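Recap quiz, item 2
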Amino acid sequence: MNILVHLFLPRRTNNYRSKLLHHHILLFFITLLFAGSFLMLQIKRNYPQVLGIKINITNEQLLSITNEKRQQNNLSPLNINPALNTAAEKKAEDMFAKNYWAHISPTGTTPWIFIKESGYNYVYAGENLAKGFNNAQEAVDAWMASPTHRENELSPNYQDVGFAVKTGKINGEDTILIVEEFGGRTLAQIPQSSSLQAISFLPSSSPVVKSASSFKPLIDSVLFSSNIYLVLIGLFIIVLTLDMIIVEKNKIVRIAGHNIDHILFFLTILLAGVIIMKGVVI
Amino acid sequence: MSKKTKHIGHRITLILILLLGLLSLQLAYANKKLQAEILILTAIFYVLWGLTHHHQNHSLNSKIVIEYILIAALGIAVLLFFITGAIGL
């Protein structure tokens, strides 16, 4: 108990400054975190089966949420189509292999090529992409919040859909990529997406690409690092607050920075983490 | 200008610096490298603000300089740990 008081509260034994806020303890945490980051990176690279990104998104969840949105808008539900699933998988693999985040590849391959190559003869076709989301609901919500993606989600022209959820690296970042390919075989209006170009399709695969169903690391690196991040920031905000209250209350005079400044800075770091981890859609 | 007014003015400046950092992070959402640079810049500005604030209050000394540098470094280190686990480098 005495040790906890010594660590968390300012008193005579810690020179009226919570021990956790002493310079050498701060330096210890900084060193530990930098070393931990380096170690985690090495384990993720060399032993991905031990520490890696665990995907909690399935095609079934994506279909169910998408159809829920469609039914809310009085539209018929979409059916999973194996050919569109293949097209989505090929598209995701192509994005990782050629390192791009776009609907059209750097070599000019459009999504329609992947759909045609998979054997799906469409009249209408569309594609939604998302990266950086850790659950299906957030990804579909992000698509619904964007007018152009919402148009695809709620188009009456589509009857079929295919999904791919894969992890890999794009621009050096570990990414959970979600590809959603829409298709409609029934001619209802003037075709809107028949802009097929005569570009050769080069199937590609990358060793760093892992499919959602086959890859489950022992420890989820996202959960592991985010828990430590939240615990440490929370711990320092609590210690700084307690230290500030007790010093103010007891009118203790000491040479130290203002805790309120440090609390504001840690709150900024907390919000920065939320912003950095936000997924994006195109 | 009273000491209290000066303190409030300084604190508003700090909040603006931190909010500007967060806004820049949001604007650079698709570019993780730029986001990392913005974070480091925000931490540097935080230290500079701390030193200026204590200098104007005639309370600046080496202990305070080290404290602001360590707190900024700790913030960056904990965020780096999080990013390494969640995104990779």
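Chain B has a mean pLDDT of 90.
Residues 3-83 of chain B form one domain.
End of item.
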